[in-house]
Design a protein that fits this description.
The protein is of the alpha+beta class. It has three domains: about 110 residues, Acyl-CoA dehydrogenase/oxidase, N-terminal domain (Butyryl-Coa Dehydrogenase, subunit A, domain 1, Orthogonal Bundle), CATH 1.10.540.10; about 110 residues, Butyryl-CoA Dehydrogenase, subunit A, domain 2 (Beta Barrel); about 150 residues, Butyryl-CoA Dehydrogenase, subunit A, domain 3. The chain has ten helices and ten strands. The strands form three sheets. The chain has a four-stranded mixed β-sheet, covered by helices on one side. A four-stranded antiparallel β-sheet has the order 2-3-7-6, with no helix packed on it. Helix 4 packs antiparallel against helix 6, helix 7 runs antiparallel to helix 8 and helix 8 packs across helix 10. The chain is globular and about 80 Å long.
């Protein structure tokens, strides 16, 4: 059930110690191979972090974006792997809930709140861009479908029970010929190849999915044929971009807090760094950056909660968040100095985790295209 405001405030207060102590230690153990990814999922589920936005009828708390995003911001202050799980799992259910058939909902949503069911989103390809540039294709075969193509850099490929895969069903129709499918992990013709560990997000398994004559039942189609790209944009990408922007804010806030703490403790030439104007100005600019990004997130979240279009606002929040978190982690690294460059220092980890955000749900350039389209409106020529 949806928590009361008082219960939610208590939850967040208790969560802070868990995130910065227990969760941090858990993720370090995951990165070092001391625990498995399913164990991390289980610990997040125990803290109710997998049910935050899920509707109450499916066992969730049904939090609004304005209630949920401060929690995600807090989780983002720890390891990127935990943030990624909370972010994706609290967003991907929307596609199933909004477009799934009764049978699909009955199969996947009951186990969502506990993490018993895990799902991954597969759009990005190694030989193409995204959107209408994709090459993966599905064709009808009797009563079912046959899917061919490749998807890569697919987060949770190591643990997902099923994948939401975007592919052409009629290439001649362009964007109107793209559909979405739910592909079980054990589907005949699906091969999953682990990919190397990334610069950051230690412990988050990414994989290459190869569909080689992958056979799917007729009920694998999610929503209507030809509406896959529209579904993904309206049902997942906009709100996911707002969540990524909130993640940028949380990560940057932690980096700023660490830098400010170091500035108080570090003494050079008889004075703490915090008393030097250059350091004070750098921290002031970082604080301004974080606050501005947080306000952009709140604005986009309010629009999403009100059911208003938020494509442009989501792109603005994500674009500014990406650029902001880069500046703030750069500042934290400079203020904290050489020790922050060494593996194992929290600023070093935050610096690496921040770079992964550039590639989630569209690069900075993609966000600029979205914003420019809104600015120019009908005044574009040709």
């Amino acid at each position: 059930m949806h928590p009361t405001p008082g219960a939610l405030a208590t939850f967040v207060q208790d969560l802070r110690a868990f995130v910065l102590e227990d969760l941090e230690a858990t993720c370090e153990a995951l990165a070092a191979g001391g625990i498995s990814a399913p164990e991390l999922w289980a610990r997040l589920a125990d803290r109710s972090l997998l049910r935050l936005t899920l509707p109450v009828e499916h066992g969730g708390w049904g939090l609004s974006f304005q209630e949920y995003l401060p929690i995600l911001e807090l989780v983002a202050q720890s390891h990127g792997s935990a943030r990624m799980i909370v972010h994706v799992h609290n967003g991907l259910w929307r596609l199933l809930d909004r477009y799934g058939s009764a049978a699909q909902k009955a199969r996947f949503l009951p186990g969502w709140a506990t993490g018993r069911v895990k799902m991954a989103f597969a759009l990005t390809e190694p030989d193409a861009g995204t959107g209408t540039d994709i090459r993966a294709a599905a064709r009808r075969d009797g009563r079912g479908w046959v899917l061919d193509g490749r998807k890569w850099l697919i987060t949770f490929a190591d643990v997902a029970d099923a994948f939401i895969v975007v592919a052409y069903t009629d290439r001649d129709r362009g964007a109107e010929g793209i559909s979405a499918f739910i592909v079980p992990r054990d589907a005949p013709g699906l091969h999953i190849t682990p990919q190397p560990d990334g610069m950051g997000l230690a412990g988050t398994g990414h994989g290459l999915l190869t569909f080689d004559g992958c056979r799917l039942d007729a009920d694998a189609l999610l929503g209507r044929e030809g509406e896959g790209l529209r579904m993904v944009l309206r049902g997942f990408l906009d709100t996911s971009r707002i969540s990524i922007a909130a993640s940028c804010v949380g990560l940057a806030q932690r980096a700023l807090d660490l830098a400010a703490d170091h500035a108080h403790r570090r003494v050079t030439f008889g004075k703490p760094l915090a008393e030097r104007q250059a350091v004070r100005f750098a921290l002031a600019e970082a604080a301004l950056d974080v606050h501005a990004a947080r306000l952009l997130v709140r604005d986009a979240a309010a629009r999403a909660d009100a059911g208003q279009p938020c494509t442009t606002e989501a792109a603005m929040a994500k674009l500014f968040g990406l650029e902001m978190v880069g500046r703030v982690t750069d500042t934290a690294l400079r203020v904290c100095g050489g020790p922050a460059y060494l593996r194992g220092h929290p600023v070093e980890r935050l610096y690496r985790d921040a770079r992964a955000l550039w590639f989630e749900e569209g690069t900075a350039e993609v966000q600029k295209l979205v914003i420019a389209r809104a600015v120019l409106g009908g005044r574009e020529q040709g």
